[in-house]
Write the structure tokens for this entry.
Amino acid sequence: MKQTTTGPHTASMEQRVDAIQAALDERGFKATQAVDELGHKAQEEWLPRNGARVVAKAWVDAAFRARLLADGRSAVAELGLSLPKHHRHLVALENTLRVHNVICCTLCSCTAFTLIGLPPDWYKDLEYRARIVRQSRTVLREMGLDLPADVEVRVWDTTADTRYIVIPEQPLHTQGWSEERLASVVTRDSMIGVSRL
Ligand code: FE
């Protein structure tokens, strides 16, 4: 993180964070424990492979796909996956030959992070958040996804209580693959909607 220096005696960001953490710990708020737990979850549990399982299942199981589109939260629970309480709605967005969905959070950095992982740095950049809405085709092209002119682009702005997951189209060459093998080709970026598979 960039250090803000206003004078020779200003503590570094790390020192200030440590001081706040220590002050909270002293008062019994268990800040260090909470930071460790969150760090563990972010690195070991909230991973794109969760969303990849959802996508693979939706590809092979039409009934599941219908349930996922109708009520994302309950459908992912069938796979043992959950979202925090405040992610009240999980909306699955189906890509087709004619429609391409892409998500953003114009305010900050929200994603369905328990399924697709914590947001990448570019997702949090003002540049992406502002331009994907107004110049979606151009931004997608800059990110390596050049969509045909007849494909409609739909941009979805995440809110505190509504989270999205893009269901990319299944690559043709993967027809007949097992669910597990299918899940291995699904990427985080395809579930954000900035790439196709
Ligand atoms: Fe946000």
